[in-house]
Write a structure and sequence with these properties.
The protein is α/β, with parallel strands linked by helices and 343 residues long. The protein has 13 helices and twelve strands. Strand 9 and strand 10 form a beta hairpin. It is globular, with a radius of gyration of 20 Å. It binds guanosine-5'-monophosphate and manganese (II) ion (MN).
């Protein structure tokens, strides 16, 4: 984002605009946190703002300020499409390619309206009028939204406690509570700034992480006891969940979020995956320690992408075939996987 971009955007924002903010499919704390904070800011500037999500957000984020105002494409597709079509400005937050907007992709891709991308994923598509994309030295889109409002648009005085809560949720959920993707002084100084708006980090943490259903906690136990496989030879582990498993534990959207990380918590494991059976596809998430690049792995083998240490993708064959394909790929990465990860 250049100085000219900032001037052009400020000019557009100097008169009331219809603004749509679009986030990615299966929105997480960062997608919701960044979009809700940006929406509150733009509303304060006098614009008409709608946040559009391709599908429902997880129940443990329902408490977030203004969450109930988010429009869900799977529930109100026509309304979402007409808001997108009529918007003067479209902000895309926390994703790097239109297909991540799922049902909203066709309208988004066809739109000729002024589009702004704010995101931290590698290799964003370039179909935007303004791109504010940082992929390293930043934790989350929420961190970028803070910088966008406070530093780029010079409006720190418009940030309030509710906006700060939203951005804090985005930062802690994208960094595993400040344990990865946060080796930057800027992340910590922004967290410090957010605290000064009067947020209670401890309460927010409990709202996000101590807010699971009983079924979800049992599902986690089941994954760890019955569905976690370790492949010592490749310093790799994986978890798999079938539809029957999910039904047994009354699966709700978001229930498998975060479970993948447990596969990486084992000593000497530096690459892990979770395979989850959905309708007509197997959803895959990858995590790694150190330099093993799961963004490339997901792109090359699972129609996906993400970041170096956290990525996702899909497989369109059965669970068994998917796992077999995964295991078949490992020998070519063996020497990389068996290198020390912390040097
Ligand atoms: P998760 O495993 O939590 O679903 O995703 C991890 C990271 O990879 C997130 O940053 C997410 O945006 C990205 N990601 C997940 N699935 C996909 C996908 O199918 N395509 C791309 N390009 N990125 C993905
Ligand atoms: Mn994010």
């Amino acid at each position: 984002m250049t100085q000219e971009d900032i001037i052009a955007l400020k000019k557009r924002l100097s008169t009331p605009q219809n603004i749509a903010i679009v986030i990615h499919y299966n929105p997480d704390g960062d997608a919701l946190g960044s979009s809700l904070a940006l929406a509150m800011y733009l509303t304060k500037l006098g614009h008409r703002v709608n946040v559009l999500s391709p599908n429902i957000y997880p129940a443990y984020l329902e408490w977030m300020p203004n969450c109930e105002k988010v429009l869900i494409a799977t529930e109100q597709l026509q309304l979402c499409e007409s808001i997108l079509t009529e918007a003067d400005i479209i902000f895309c937050l926390d994703f790097n390619a239109f297909h991540r907007a799922s049902l909203l992709e066709p309208t988004l891709a066809a739109s000729k309206k002024f589009k702004v991308l704010i995101d931290h994923h590698i290799d964003p598509i370039q179909d935007f009028d303004i791109i504010y994309s940082l992929t390293s030295q930043t934790s989350s889109t929420s961190e970028l939204i803070y910088q966008f409002i406070a530093d780029k648009l010079n409006d720190k005085h418009l940030i309030d406690k509710r906006m700060a809560e939203c951005m804090y949720v985005g930062i802690i959920t994208d960094t595993g509570s400040l344990s990865y993707s946060c080796n930057n002084a800027s992340t910590y100084s922004i967290v410090g700034d957010l605290m000064k708006f009067g947020i209670d980090g401890e309460i927010i943490h409990k709202r996000v992480y101590d807010n699971f259903s009983e079924d979800r906690v049992h599902l986690l136990g089941y994954c760890l006891f019955k569905r976690l496989i370790v492949l010592d030879e490749y310093s790799t582990s994986y978890i798999y969940l079938t539809k029957e498993d999910l039904n047994y534990f009354n699966y709700q959207q978001g229930d498998t979020e975060g479970i993948v990380n447990y596969g990486l918590s084992i000593k000497n494991v530096r690459f892990t995956a979770i395979f989850t059976e959905r309708d007509e596809r197997i959803r895959v998430s990858f995590r790694s320690k150190g330099n093993f690049d799961v963004n490339s792995f997901a792109r090359d083998h699972f129609n996906g992408g993400g970041h170096k240490n956290a990525s996702g993708g899909n497989s369109y064959v059965s669970m068994n075939e998917t796992i077999e394909n995964f295991i078949r790929l490992l020998p070519q990465y063996k020497s990389l996987l068996n290198q020390p990860w912390d040097e």
